[in-house]
Design a protein that fits this description.
The complex is a heterodimer of chains A (556) and B (221).
Chain A: E1 16-21, H1 25-36, E2 41-44, H2 59-64, E3 77-80, E4 88-89, H3 115-118, H4 120-124, H5 139-154, H6 181-192, E5 198-199, H7 234-244, E6 248-251, E7 255-261, E8 267-273, E9 279-289, H8 295-302, E10 327-334, E11 347-351, H9 359-362, E12 368-373, H10 378-384, H11 394-404, E13 408-415, E14 424-432, E15 438-443, H12 448-468, E16 472-475, E17 514-516, H13 531-550
Parallel strand pairs in A: 1-2, 1-9, 2-6, 3-15, 9-17
Antiparallel strand pairs in A: 3-4, 5-11, 7-8, 8-9, 10-13, 10-16, 11-12, 12-13, 14-15
Helix pairs in contact in A: 1-7, 1-13, 5-13, 6-12
Chain B: H1 3-13, H2 18-44, H3 55-68, H4 82-89, H5 98-115, H6 127-137, H7 159-172, H8 184-189, H9 216-220
Helix pairs in contact in B: 1-2, 3-4, 4-7, 5-6, 5-7
Classes of the chains: A alpha/beta (556), B mainly alpha (221).
Chain lengths: 556, 221
C-alpha cells in the first residue's frame, strides 16, 4: 500500500483544519474525503493501528482477549431496562477499537437503505411509545454517495437482481461473490415460497484492486480482520488514501475524553489520553466526532461544563437517546449433505420481500431482510451452534459436533427497531473505566411492536428451513435484547433543534464548528445493515463540510 | 515444512490476480513470520513442561477435559493437548480463573472420594466412575447462548462452565492460538485445515447453474 506522499505528523499545538475522533466506517471516509479536498486532518483513534499482517485466525486473541474490540475489563459497560432501574455491570455493547473501527470485523452485508427508510413517519404517522420521524434528507439525496461507497470502497453485487431495490445511478463495480451451499439451499427454498432471493451485495472484493486481494475464502470473516485486504473497510479502502494525501495523520492509542471549548462557545480541539495516560490537547479549527453511536454521545456528555451542564450540544436533551440496535431473529437448520459453509465469507444470498410489511394487516410496523449464513468459528460453533437438546459433554456431544459442523446453516432475519426515548446511552453514576471516566450505561427495552415483528420473522425463517429440506431445525424464543452492536440514532439528524442534535449537514445545532457523523446520526434504523449508510452519510457530510469550510462558514 | 506452513503457502499461491500477487509478495515475510512465531510459541509450551498447574492438577484437568470430549476412533481432548492449552491459558488470557481451578479441582476430588470411598482423586477413578461423576458435575453447565448478536459467552464464576469453555477452545481453536494440536479437533468437526478455499465448497453448490432472475413461471407459484 504505497502512499503517494510521505506520511505527515502534526504537533498537538498545530491548529489543524479538522480533528476527527474515531477511524471507523464514518471517520475513515471523512478523513479520506477531507484530506483529499486539501484540508489538514488528524484522526484520533482509541485503539491500536493494526495492519493485515497483524490479523490472524487466533480466536483467543480476537474473541477472548478482545484484540479488535472494546475490552469490558478496562472499559466496563452497565445495563438496565428502564430509567427506574439501577444499572448493573454487564457486557452490553461491542464496537471496533482499532484503526478502521467496527468495519474491520464486520460481516460486510452492504445493503442500501430504501426510500421508505427516510420517510417512515410521513407514511405511517405516529406510533405510540415511539418517536418515529422523517429524515431531513431523502434516498435521492444519498444515492450518489451510496454509489461512491460501491465504487470507492468496493462492493460486490448484481444490480437489478432484486425487484425491491431502490433506483441506482450505476451498477456495482464488480460481480457478486461466489454462491455458497447456504445460498443455494436458501435460494431454492425462497423461490419455492414465492420470494425473490438474489446475490447478496457484500463489501468484500470479488476481484482484486490495487493493493488489495480478492477474497480467498479463508472462513475467518465475521469478527476477524482480513489478512489480504479483501474486506472493504476503512482500514483497507479509505485510510490509505487519506494518508497518501500527505495531509492526514492517523494517531492511534488516543482516547478522547473531552471536547475543549473556548469562552465564545467554539470547539478548539479534542483532549485525549495518550498511550501513557498523559493528557494531550489536539487543536483544530473544527471537531468531527465519528466515535460511534455509543462513544459519540458519551463524549458529549463527558464534555459538560457550567455553560452546558447537561452535556455539550445537548440543548435538545436528546444526546444519547433513541438508541436503535436493530431487531433480529435467528433459526438454524442441519442438512443431509455437507454444506461446508465454514469456507468463505458469511452470506451469499438474501431476500427483501419483507422490507416493507403491511402494518395494518399484521398489527406491527417494520420490516427487514433475511440472509442465509454461517458465521461461527469452530469453537463458537461448539458453544452455540448445536441443537438446544444436544448433550453438552461426552460421546453424544462429540458425535453432534462431528455431524453438524459442516451441515449447519443459519437464517438470520435483520429488521427495524423503533426509536424509544428511554432507550439510551448515558454516563453511569458509579462505575468507572480504567482511566477513571464514567462508564457507558445502556438503558434498553424493546418496543412491544419490535418483539411482535421478531416473532413474525422467526416463524418465516423456520418456514424457509422447511422449504429448504432441513433435516433438523430450531430457533429460540424471541427475547428482549440486552446487547448492542448496531449503535444507532443516539444524536439524530433533523431540522428542528428541539427535536434533533445535528442538522442535515451533520453540524450540531448548538456548536458551529462541531460535527457528528456515525451511527448516531441515523433517524430510523433501516433494516439491520447500517454500515453502508454510515459510510454514505460520511461521504455526503464531507461534501457539505467542505463547502461550508470553503465559504468560511465554519471558522469564520 | 509442516502442515501449517503448507496451508499458508497454498493460501498465498491461491490468491490470484496481479495486484494481489504484488501485495502478497510484499506482505509475505511478515505473514510468514507471524504464523511461524505463533506456531512455534504454541509448540514450545507443549508436553515439555507445565507453567501453572501442578502435575496432579494437570491430571485432573486432562481427565475432566477427556470426559467433555472423549477419545474414540477420532481424537479427543487428550490427543488435542487441551491440558497444555489450559495450562497456558491460566498463565495468560485466563489468569484470573486460576483460583477457580484451584478450588474447583479440589472440590471435584472431594466429591469423588465422597462418592467412591478409597478413590483418591477424579483422575484415579475408573472410566465408569468418572462418567457417573460427570453426570452430577455437568448439571451446572449453561444452556446454549440463544441471542443472535452476543455469541461471546461471558466469563463464568462456575468452575465447570469455565473448564468446559476452555476445553472447547483448546480443542477447536486454530493451532495458531495454541490449541487443537495437529488439528485433532478439526478432524472431529471435518474442517479442512487449509488456509484458503475455492468454490464449490460443498455438496449443494457443486451443480449450481448460476444465478438467474425468477422466470414468469416460478413467479406464478
Amino acid at each position: 500500500m504505497s502512499a503517494a506522499n510521505p506520511k505527515v505528523t502534526y504537533k498537538p499545538s498545530d491548529e489543524v483544519d479538522f480533528v476527527i475522533v474515531g477511524s471507523g466506517a464514518a471517520g475513515g471516509v471523512m478523513a479520506k474525503e477531507l484530506s483529499t479536498n486539501g484540508f489538514r486532518v488528524v484522526v484520533l483513534e482509541q485503539g491500536p493501528y493494526l495492519t493485515p499482517a497483524d490479523f490472524t485466525h487466533d480466536e483467543v486473541k480476537v474473541m477472548a482477549e478482545h484484540q479488535l474490540t472494546n475490552n469490558p475489563a478496562t472499559q466496563p459497560t452497565t445495563f438496565r431496562k428502564t430509567p427506574q432501574d439501577k444499572a448493573r455491570k454487564q457486557y452490553s455493547v461491542m464496537y471496533g477499537r482499532c484503526v478502521g473501527g467496527s468495519s474491520v470485523h464486520f460481516t460486510a452485508n452492504f445493503w442500501r437503505f430504501h426510500e421508505i427508510d427516510f420517510v417512515e413517519h410521513s407514511k405511517v404517522g405516529d406510533i405510540p411509545g415511539a418517536a418515529l420521524a422523517d429524515w431531513p434528507i431523502t434516498y435521492a439525496d444519498l444515492e450518489p454517495y451510496y454509489t461512491k461507497v460501491d465504487w470507492e470502497i468496493g462492493v460486490s453485487g448484481l444490480a437489478g437482481a432484486s425487484p425491491f431495490d431502490p433506483p441506482r445511478s450505476k451498477p456495482y463495480p464488480m460481480p457478486p461473490l461466489p454462491v455458497k451451499g447456504n445460498g443455494v439451499v436458501f435460494e431454492r427454498a425462497a423461490r419455492k415460497l414465492g420470494y425473490h432471493p438474489y446475490p447478496a451485495p457484500m463489501a468484500i472484493l470479488s476481484q482484486p484492486r490495487p493493493g488489495r486481494s480478492a477474497c480467498v475464502n479463508c472462513g475467518f470473516c465475521l469478527g476477524f480482520g482480513c489478512e489480504v485486504g479483501a474486506k472493504s473497510t476503512s482500514l483497507s479502502a479509505a485510510l490509505p488514501v487519506a494518508e497518501g494525501t500527505g495531509r492526514c495523520e492517523i494517531r492511534p492509542n488516543c482516547y478522547v475524553h473531552k471536547i475543549e471549548m473556548d469562552k465564545n462557545g467554539r470547539a478548539i480541539g479534542a483532549l485525549y489520553f495518550d498511550a501513557k495516560k498523559n493528557t494531550v490537547l489536539q487543536k483544530a479549527k473544527a471537531v468531527i466526532l465519528c466515535a460511534n453511536g455509543a462513544e459519540t454521545p458519551r463524549l458529549l456528555l463527558l464534555s459538560s461544563s457550567p455553560q452546558c451542564p447537561n452535556g455539550l450540544a445537548n440543548s435538545s436533551g436528546l444526546v444519547g437517546k433513541y438508541l436503535m440496535p436493530n431487531s433480529g431473529a435467528l433459526a438454524f437448520g442441519v442438512f443431509e449433505e455437507p454444506l461446508n459453509d465454514y469456507k468463505g465469507f458469511c452470506v451469499s444470498r438474501i431476500f427483501h420481500d419483507f422490507y416493507e410489511l403491511d402494518h395494518e394487516k399484521l398489527g406491527f410496523y417494520g420490516g427487514g431482510g433475511l440472509d442465509a449464513r454461517f458465521d461461527f468459528t469452530p469453537a463458537g460453533f461448539a458453544t452455540g451452534g448445536l441443537p438446544p437438546d444436544t448433550p453438552r459433554w461426552g460421546k453424544e456431544f462429540k458425535k453432534a459436533l462431528h455431524h453438524n459442523f459442516t451441515r449447519t446453516l443459519e437464517i438470520f432475519c435483520h429488521a427495524t427497531s423503533l426509536a424509544v426515548e428511554s432507550n439510551s446511552f448515558s454516563l453511569d453514576p458509579d462505575v468507572k473505566d480504567a482511566w477513571g471516566l464514567p462508564a457507558l450505561r445502556m438503558t434498553y427495552k424493546d418496543h412491544p411492536n419490535d418483539l411482535k415483528m421478531m416473532e413474525w420473522m422467526r416463524v418465516r425463517a423456520l418456514e424457509v428451513l422447511d422449504a429448504a429440506g432441513a433435516k433438523t431445525k430450531w430457533s429460540y424464543p424471541v427475547q428482549e435484547q440486552q446487547f448492542a452492536v448496531h449503535l444507532l440514532g443516539t444524536c439524530r439528524m433533523g431540522e428542528d433543534p428541539k427535536k434533533s442534535v445535528v442538522n442535515a449537514d451533520h453540524r450540531t445545532h448548538d456548536v458551529r464548528n462541531l460535527f457528528l457523523c456515525d451511527g448516531s446520526s441515523l433517524v430510523t434504523s433501516g433494516r439491520g445493515q447500517p454500515t453502508m449508510t454510515i459510510m454514505a452519510l460520511a461521504f455526503r457530510a464531507s461534501d457539505r463540510i467542505t463547502t461550508l469550510a470553503k465559504r468560511g462558514e465554519i471558522s469564520g | 515444512m509442516n502442515s501449517r506452513e503448507t496451508a499458508r503457502r497454498e493460501f498465498l499461491l491461491g490468491s490470484g490476480g496481479a495486484a494481489a500477487a504484488a501485495w502478497l509478495s510484499a506482505q509475505w515475510p511478515s505473514i510468514l513470520f507471524a504464523a511461524q512465531h505463533a506456531h512455534e510459541a504454541a509448540k514450545g509450551g507443549g508436553a515439555a513442561h507445565l507453567l501453572v498447574l501442578t502435575p496432579e492438577q494437570a491430571r485432573a484437568v486432562e481427565a475432566i477435559a477427556a470426559q467433555i470430549i472423549p477419545s474414540d476412533e477420532l481424537p479427543g481432548a487428550r490427543e488435542a493437548g487441551v491440558v497444555y492449552f489450559i495450562d497456558r491459558a491460566l498463565h495468560t488470557f485466563a489468569k484470573d480463573t486460576l483460583p477457580q481451578y484451584q478450588t474447583g479441582l479440589a472440590e471435584v476430588n472431594k466429591q469423588t472420594t465422597e462418592k467412591y470411598p478409597g478413590v483418591k482423586s477424579f483422575a484415579d477413578a475408573s472410566a465408569e466412575q468418572q462418567e457417573n461423576l460427570m453426570v452430577e458435575l455437568a448439571v451446572t453447565l449453561s444452556p446454549q447462548p440463544s441471542g443472535p448478536r452476543n455469541r461471546r459467552q461471558a466469563a463464568s464464576d462456575n468452575f465447570m462452565q469455565t473448564i468446559w469453555q476452555h476445553t472447547i477452545l483448546g480443542f477447536l481453536v486454530d493451532p495458531e492460538a495454541g490449541g487443537n494440536r495437529e488439528y485433532a479437533g478439526w478432524k472431529v468437526i471435518d474442517r479442512d485445515p487449509a488456509h484458503s478455499f475455492s468454490p464449490p465448497f460443498g455438496y449443494y453448490d457443486k451443480d449450481y447453474p448460476g444465478w438467474q432472475a425468477a422466470s414468469a413461471e416460478t413467479e406464478k407459484k
